[in-house]
Amino acid sequence: EPFLLNFHLINVVLCDCVSVVLGKYGWSVTYTTQSICALKGSTVDLSCSFRYPRGHKVTSTFWFTEWGTGVEPEDPVQDPEYAGHVEYHGDKEKDCTLRITDLRERDSSTYWFRLLTDQEGGTYTGSPGVTLSVTGLQVKVTGGHQDKILTCITTCTLTDNPTYIWYKNGQHLDESTSPQYKDPVSSIYIDGYSCAVKGHEELHSPAVCVQGQSCNRVTYTKRRICVLKGSTVDISCTYVGYYSTISTFWFRSDKSTP
């Protein structure tokens, strides 16, 4: 077993939401939330705080996702794959918040915080860590031919009891704390429905045809793009139209008329 486990850890649970792992000699890491479910493409903060014994000076702090026996964990912030994607927002005193932007499904993992000090044996890893699950949105269609039921589904239960927003052919329909659309669903073949979560309206689910598979729908390759001023960018999408398409164009959301 790694020597880090030789501190005789004691698990203490406070308020059903905060886990503190206390070391025998004054070490501790407190994770504000142990489990987070967040939307693909969104930003999430893994918040925590830490303590260490007097007389020690923190020389290094980082988070990691893989920890094998006899293998030193590596800081993902230094990995080119995470460049501009993972940022440490904490310090070397007590705050150990990690921010992950533009979440990807492969970011789903358990994250641990680790600190090193200038004293012999001054290495500590906080357990149990934070389990992050990343999910997209999908519209599930159930029911008979005339009584369709739409449900906005995720692979994990989203944190913070979200409000769901429904769209028909890209136009805002309704908002509800229920993931199920409550009003009658149109049976017109051209209509496509999608859902989003309030606060992340740009992260729509793919549109779903409630009748057949040829309704009007547009699928954007990437919903959020950050580029340098003066550079060139491709904004790409695919589309399906129920009727023959005679024209297509892009428009800006800050213009009153497309």
Automatic annotation (TrEMBL):
Location of the Ig-like domain: 128-211
Keywords for this protein: Signal
UniProt signal peptide: 1-23
Highest rank taxon of the organism: Eukaryota
UniProt keyword Transmembrane helix, yes or no: no
SMART domains documented for this protein: IG
Protein name per its UniProtKB record: Ig-like domain-containing protein
Source species: Salmo trutta
Pfam families with a match to the protein in the record: Ig_CD22 (PF24518)
